[in-house]
Amino acid sequence: MKKKAILWPLLLGWTLVAGAQPATVCHQDGTVTFQYKNKQAREVQVDVQFAGRKPMKRDAETGLWTVTLGPAAPDMYPYCFVVDGVSVMDPQNKQYFPNEGFKNSLLEIPAQTGSLPHDICAVPHGAVEYIHYYSQSLGATNQAVVYLPPSYQQNPQKRYPVFYLISGTTDTEEVYYKVGRVNYILDNLLAKGEAEEMIVVLPYGNPYKLLPSQPGMAGVPQTQFGGDVFSQDLVNDLMPYVEHRYRTFNDRDHRGIGGFSRGGNQGLSCGLRNLDKFSYLCSYSSFTSTDIPQVYDHAADTNSKLHLFWLGVGTDDFLYGNARDYMEFLDKKGIRCVKEYTHDKYGHTWMNAKYFLDKTLRLLFRPEAAAEAMQNGKPALAATGNEPQFTAGVMARLFPRPLISPEYKADGIVFRCKAPDAQKVVFVSEQSERPLTMQRDSDGVWQVEVKKNIHDTFTYYFLIDGTPVADAQNMYLAPSQGFKPSICQHPASTYHFAAMGKDIPHGVVRYDLNKGEATYLPADAENLETLPVVQLQPGKNDTMESWFKVGGADAMADRLIAEGRIRPCILTTASVAGASVLRADAYKTWEQRRKALETLLLKKSSKGMEGKLKGS
User: Fold this and answer.
1) Is there a contact between 368 and 339 (Cβ–Cβ < 8 Å)?
2) Residue 218 class from Cβ within 10 Å (0-12 exposed, 13-18 middle, 19+ buried)?
3) What is the pTM of this model?
4) What is the CATH number of domain 503-607?
5) Strands 486-488 and 104-109
6) For site-directed labelling of 394, which of 57, 181, 455, 558 has its Cα 20 to 30 A away?
7) What mean pLDDT is reported for the chain?
């Protein structure tokens, strides 16, 4: 009976938003009908990037809220529903926007003729790998995502140039993959012979968030550049890891760096301060310091070191004034660069980021094409005096000080959410036998502290007046098919990368986008075909990511291998003849699934695991 009691709250919350939920519909004329079913809600709006926040109408009998908006240009747009003042992701949509703060779903309006640069086309797809590495600069384990071109596995002797691509403020390392679609844009260009084969590395741009909070700094976005810990980590830790793990060309002619928004600032700053390491620099909707020694006052030397210096911004971007001023500054200093402007992509948006990415991927590591673009570079647009400028006030408005949730303590975990108009908020998790009532303060912030089973990883969400809502402050979401709860993982958990020592080698998790399979490959394994294999079968509502992002299977394997308790092995969602199989649906919670995996790995390692993975 106890097992049923533990599972009941999660099933209850998911049932409220699953099954009967209708899908959002894109029409041929570019309009979109948003649909959201919620009988308890008093007011629902949709907030979508091409239209802003608009009210939805409710069918009193069915509880279905609808509104049709547009038409809008074919592209990908973030959106969410605002239910009685609280932002809620679309529970019917598999695609979501990874972020440290806000939680949005992603809408794709398709082109009626032809295809868009980011479309998932019938071409060979590269692989995406999730990596962890110990950073001396941080004194902690950091993370990144790596794209490998389709030919990487077929040509074991070939080496590749590397492009380091950084996301913006509050973005995670996944955003240029899941929102910017760098992998699909590059797949499409490579299939047409319009880009050079390359490895793309997506760093996590806010490593301060991985460090212990400093007094008065908890939750504050990282905004320092140049000599900060991010640049130190990228140059001194991430680059050496990438050049050890992958087949790369390790010279300035084969390295590029760039990014969007804060990532553009970080990329330019790091690149200009390390012109002995980078010769291709790209800034998307950003700018950087005008005080970098030995760069701006030595134009001839700087120009000779840069194959490509590319700057793009929208004239309706809130950073346009600063970006234009920086372009003009470069012109006055005699620094050559390419300038690109847009006027129709809603300002500081990922529609612009994808557009700029498509433009620059065609030039990277193509010296002749890059030289022609640089030769045709035009002066900065003339100032009008009305350009928006990025100030501390704008920063405070765009990125208000967030709540801290979860807040990890030695003897408990505090969860918080802001819902000023809510009548009742409860905390629902795998670890609780029943929902826990949260308490409201005078600012409309609800809070609860959990002291039981705090060192295990579990999923949870808030039930706000009957509506399930993920934790807006937690960057870790369970990649489920429908409603996506948040993931709580205490930094002191046994199988948490943050708790692992610096000497532990880390494997990678490779996502095969052609087959829809995820595979853990141990560190420095030379002959993969000889390694034993465990097949991890996802649960009914899971995706190929779930066993790793929620189950922590890669962290478990890393630690057990490093401790010598098991021999190196492969964990995969692929079907492998003769492999040991662990079915997620045979267990009720992720805690039980992890224990079953640990038991299986220890048992099979002592007896020898069967099964071999071909083509790795």
Assistant:
1) no
2) middle
3) 0.93
4) 3.40.50.1820
5) unpaired
6) 181
7) 91
